[in-house]
Amino acid sequence: MKKRLCGLLVMLGTWCLSVDAEGLSEKEQHAFLSKRTTPHLLGSFNGFCSLLYAACEVAIHTESRAINSTPLQSLAPAFYKPTWRELFDSIAIQTQSAWSYDAARDYWVFAKPQNPRAYYHLEMAKEWKQDNRGEYVSYSPSIAPVGMDIYIMGTYSADTPEAANDLYQKVKESFAVTFAKHFKKDVTPADMKAVTVNTYPALHFEINVPSGIIWRQWVIVEKGQAFVIVSSIKPEHDAQLYPDVKAMISSFKIASP
């Protein structure tokens, strides 16, 4: 890309701006988005914008104060190098936005509303409520503040079709350990059970936590998409709520990209 000026707009936050830049053609956009990158998301969108331009000369922009102040984190395991498309999708998930390319100004724009595409479908249990919180969707029953969450952990691609299954398993095990180690520090994939969620192979982990909850998790990586389903239920509510959780999980279906 040609040299650009990265301007700091104090009133509205930090935007990476292009001056007299030539926009990318559709073919060039596709080529760029398919390349792999190493930046890990950290801090707010505002701060990451400056870091991204300084390190990679890639300009992203938003006119939304809400997006600008949203804290970002890397959804992908540390060993994985996402494509630029996957990285931008990860930002969009967390900021509840959609992204596109502005050829006139040669930068990538994140704006609300969120892309209307569904990442998955399920049949909600009666008297449960749903709340989209960006990186995850919370499902809560009427008798408790929490019940089940579904984390949307981004998309993953292998360089060859033959490598896809091994990659998916590695990502699945990484997420399973990341979530479970909060409750069992020395947990390993060997502590997980291989189960089936609807038709998808998953890793399942369950533990009674001393604080007084039953923690359950299911990790799915299928069709290049990763999800972590977690459930936190007090023992006295388990007999009533866990059947609802199992029914919703059984109906879980990954949407087409």
Provide an overview of this structure.
This protein has helices at residues 26-34, 45-56, 65-69, 84-95, 164-180, 235-250, and strands at residues 8-9, 13-14, 42-44, 60-61, 71-73, 98-102, 107-111, 120-121, 129-132, 136-140, 148-155, 193-197, 200-209, 213-222, 225-233, 253-254. The protein is 28% helix and 30% strand. It is an alpha+beta fold and 257 residues long. Mean pLDDT is 88; it is low at 1-20. A hairpin with a 3-residue loop joins strand 13 and strand 14 (213-222). It has six helices and 16 strands. It has two domains: 8-111, Phage tail protein beta-alpha-beta fold (3-Layer(bab) Sandwich); 120-254, 3-Layer(aba) Sandwich (Protein Transport Mog1p, Chain A). It has a seven-stranded antiparallel sheet, sandwiched between helices. A three-stranded mixed sheet has the order 4-7-6. The chain has a two-stranded antiparallel ribbon with strand order 1-2.
Strand order of the largest sheet: 9-10-11-15-14-13-12
What class do helices, strands and sheet pairing give?
alpha+beta
Distance between the termini: 29 Å
Number of helices: 6
CATH homologous superfamily title of the largest domain: Mog1/PsbP, alpha/beta/alpha sandwich
Q: Largest sheet, if any?
A: 7 strands, antiparallel
Uncertain regions spanning at least 5 consecutive residues: 1-20
Which CATH top level class of the largest domain fits? Alpha Beta
Strand coverage percent: 25-35%
Overall outline: globular
pLDDT averaged over residues: 88
Rg from alpha-carbon coordinates: 20 Å
The domain tally reads 2
Order of helices and strands, N to C?
A: EEHEHEHEHEEEEEEHEEEEHE
CATH architecture of the largest domain: 3-Layer(aba) Sandwich
β-strand number: 16
User: Helical amount among residues, as a percent range?
Assistant: 25-40%
CATH topology of the largest domain: Protein Transport Mog1p, Chain A
